[in-house]
Amino acid sequence: MPELPEVETVRRQLEPRLTGRRVTEAWSHPSPKFVPARELVGKRLGAMGRRGKFLINPIDGEHDIELIIHLGMTGQLLCVDQPPNIENQHLRAWWMLDNETTLEFIDVRRFGRIRVVPSGDYDSIPTLANAGPEPFDESFDAADFWQNLRRSRRPIKTQLLSQRPIAGVGNIYADEALWLAQINPKARRLGRQRADRLLTALREVLEGGLANGGTTLRDYRNADGNKGTNQHQLMVYGRSSRACYRCSAILRSEQIDGRTTTWCPDCQGK
DNA sequence: GTGATAACCTGCTCGC
DNA sequence: TGCGAGCAGGTTATCA
Fold this sequence. Notes:
Structural class: alpha+beta
Strand order of the largest sheet: 1-6-7-5
Radius of gyration: 19 Å
């Protein structure tokens, strides 16, 4: 499940390979989720950027438009030095570039999306339009984070997944950060100190994920088709009914806002 | 504006 | 062995 570390890993790999390349041919699955991919034929790609879990590519030249890609649950962007592998039944779109390389968008569950929008016009993508600050933005501090969290009374886990208080956090890194900060995922109000701890923990787990090339539980692959290794560092995610690494209590799992959430009922509170 | 819920999707696992 | 149910979860749409 690509979250910020996985998306950023892909972005860093794609940027030098795609910048300045012209799209010579494109194909997409007929689903409206992927059809906009075809609009890029003849256009030149800019430097790949990222906002939260969204990849954003400004199209160079006279076209004032941007390519927006969300990997969803199982999306992969592969850059290969050969024609597209049309035998792959999960191939949803591909772009052939003017240097004979191909960018393939593979998505088993079809939760990913491709959009082409006027530059900066994200009204049709509410999650992107309302995304909170980037976790590693130096101008974003704990006071801002605390203020963002105070706007809602929903459980802290739900707030993190909404992308509003901070961008790029998904189910895995939310559980890991809450464990690290010793905060119960059902907490609805955080004091300033706990908000400080949570922001520090979020930055720590996201940084770790990035350093390890992302977390591969099943589907995630980077732009070279390789797995990440951060799954070996997880403290709580996927460890329900096993002993907490910090206090040895048995980890509990429950659905919060429809998402499986794992936490320690002892050192993270009841 | 906020919160809750369902739907979108397909592969895998488990129980019968 | 085959079948059906349940689960995984990020985003969007809809309703209260």
